Amino acid sequence: MQQQVYERICALVYDEAGIRIRPGKESMVASRLAKRVRALGLESETDYLEYLERELATEVVALLDVISTNVTSFYRESEHFKVLADSHRQLLRAGAKRVRYWCAASSTGEEPYTIAMTLAEVERELGARPDCRLLATDISTRVLKEASDGAYNNARMAGVPEELRKRYFARTEIAGVEMHRAIPELSSRIMFRRLNLSQPPFPMRGPLDAVFCRNVMFYFDEPVKEALVAEFHRLLKPGGLLFVGKSESLPPGSPGYVRAGSSVFRKVN
Ligand SMILES: C[S@@+](CC[C@H](N)C(=O)[O-])C[C@H]1O[C@@H](n2cnc3c(N)ncnc32)[C@H](O)[C@@H]1O
Fold first, then answer.
1. Does residue 50 belong to any structural domain of this protein?
2. pLDDT tens, 108-138?
3. Ligand 1 lined by 199 (C-beta under 6 Å)
4. Burial class (CB in 10 A: 0-12, 13-18, 19+), 237
5. Is 46 in the same domain as 86?
6. Cβ–ligand 1 contact at 111 (below 6 Å)
7. Cα of 71 to ligand 1 centre, how many Å?
8. Does residue 73 fall inside a structural domain?
């Protein structure tokens, strides 16, 4: 891949999504772009770059879809869901009537459905019916579509305990494959929207009880991370929780948070 094309693509991906592609990733970028080159019936990456610059407003969405990694799973980094359950239980026991959560890089939906099952289980245990909502966002329209469809094959459901699969998913068949679709009781708890985390401020008011922003911040450089973490701080309630991925942390010296567990932070002021 021509160096000039590679550098321009990296610059566009950074400007549009805050994603910093590390040096030496030419072959990874070339193989991902090849999908768009083929889909558009173009000849080369250079043709693709010309097309992209011309049709930036629409094509950038498809570019980010092929560039970003969407790896996720149900109950990934499972200890976070115990912390979430404890916190939700405490809020409801203290009489909270309105509770708000945000899953900020929801990918194909496994993470927000796991959050929703965790909340539903606590409410079932306490016999509580709070006004509880979960916003799930991602930059990729492709993953958002899959997430709002909420149907997963057996392999992807492997992390969901049998009892919860039976309670919250209905068996169905899609193109001859056995699938499990989230039932309305679960899916109606979640609102899916497109949102770019690299461009705060975000059009929501809060205040939020917890934010999950896991396994996406490592794509961002320090200025993007700092702005994002400050925006979460604006939106969280005092005492609200911020969950990040296990291999991630807040930028050094992020004001207004204390550690509340492994890769969990609490807003303090
Ligand atoms: C590796 S997945 C993580 C999914 C999930 N949070 C988890 O931990 O399993 C990263 C997700 O971040 C999304 N993403 C990347 N850049 C983004 C941005 N600037 N704004 C919003 N989402 C972004 C990708 O589309 C992808 O779905």
1. yes
2. 999 999 999 999 999 999 999 999 999 999 9
3. no
4. middle
5. no
6. yes
7. 9
8. no
